[in-house]
Amino acid sequence: MRISELSAQSGVPVPTIKYYLREKLLPEGERSSPTQASYGVAHVQRLGVIRALVDAGVGIAGVRKVVGVLEEPPENPYDLLGAANAAVTPEVSSDLDLTAALALLERMGGSAEHCFPDQVAAVAHALATLDRAGFTVPDAVMDAYLEHLGALAEAELAATPDTSIEDAVRYVVLGTALVEPLILALRRVAEQVAASRRFGSGAP
Amino acid sequence: MRISELSAQSGVPVPTIKYYLREKLLPEGERSSPTQASYGVAHVQRLGVIRALVDAGVGIAGVRKVVGVLEEPPENPYDLLGAANAAVTPEVSSDLDLTAALALLERMGGSAEHCFPDQVAAVAHALATLDRAGFTVPDAVMDAYLEHLGALAEAELAATPDTSIEDAVRYVVLGTALVEPLILALRRVAEQVAASRRFGSGAP
DNA sequence: CTCTCTAGATAGTGTCGCTATCCAGTGTTG
DNA sequence: CAACACTGGATAGCGACACTATCTAGAGAG
């Protein structure tokens, strides 16, 4: 498959494919001559992954990390998850007060040793942002977050090993980045449904 | 309070404050002369909100919508929620297949009339993105999403009316935009904790 | 032999969230 | 009352990002 057909099949413009090649997001095709290479289905799939990640707001650098994990997955599932999360978690300044985040972690039934530090920092950052806007999450709501997100994580984890190792890698790495928009969208819809049940519909 | 003190108290540089004024994110101060205005605590709070929203990835246009809702909140809680969600939901192309999203909505116990169309479109968009990356959410996991996100929405809604009307507006509008990063961060941590419980810690 | 396609390199585009500079007018200080 | 920092307002520029356009020299197909 030449580059123009790859473009046609994936829906990604040729110059963009060249850009992804330059940025090492897409592996080179098999070279048949100095100015010729051929691509396969793996490239089409990879392009799908790249576009999905970029659309999800993961930057080029983040995508590069994700495809790195896809190509050389750690064998330990825990490390795999950590690598996937690290790849899509934006860098966060380290001068954060972690105490509140660590307290939440404990309420969830974990502790700092069970997590990569970046994840804890991300929680702390989110809390700090809320604080800066003068917003406090009620305790009852926070309890609900901890309980239901914990249950949700368990359910995701339970579903993972049913598939092959390779699928597990895809699941964890892509799921981390791509399932999040779905979760947010579902939460908003759930709120809308709950609100309409409670107050009756306004005028959609 | 003059602009430099507003800058000092809020931590936002003076040129940036001027920019927010130009963009109508921040209301003008009370004019005491053609080249003088004075600002109050409301402006400091508003700056906190703006920065939090911008940091959360809500663009300038989105922030403008949010502050619009903050200044003229709909009286119906349902409409309030819809306006808040609409403000922070990025525009999405309308040529989407909504059937899968509507099926999910039904499984959740709601229907299309209970939601603003943009929200359903957002779900459809997230599903399409996953599909494009060749990723399928297992049915069991989807069930868990629907169940726990529904419960989560109920808990949030139950906590809202305890406070004053004004706080309710703040809660809904800001919560929509700012709580989401917290939820995502907590989910990632929860996954890590669950994984370490299951497989034992790797090497954080 | 021509015509299109290719890899590769370099430079340019559009958007976004600021940031820098300038200006004339103002309040404050000595 | 004079010097001077500061003000609101306008305009222009910047840096990051994700492409996109243009060029060149070489392949390959008819």
Describe the structure concisely for a colleague:
The structure is a homodimer of 204-residue chains. Chain A has helices at 3-10, 14-22, 41-55, 60-71, 77-88, 99-108, 117-132, 139-159, 165-199, and strands at 30-33, 36-38.
Give an overview of the whole structure.
2 copies of one chain form a homodimer. Chain A is mainly alpha-helical. The first copy, chain A, has 9 helices and 2 strands. Chain A has helices spanning 3-10, 14-22, 41-55, 60-71, 77-88, 99-108, 117-132, 139-159, 165-199, and strands spanning 30-33, 36-38. Chain A has a two-stranded antiparallel ribbon with strand order 1-2. In chain A, strand 1 (30-33) and strand 2 (36-38) form a beta hairpin. In chain A, helix 6 packs across helix 7 (117-132). The longest helix of chain A is centred in the C-terminal third of the chain and has 35 residues, at 165-199. Chain A starts with a helix and ends in a 5-residue tail after the last helix. The mean pLDDT of chain A is 87. At the A-B interface, helix 3, helix 5, helix 6, helix 7 and helix 8 of A face helix 3, helix 5, helix 6, helix 7 and helix 8 of B. The structure holds a DNA duplex (30 and 30 nucleotides).
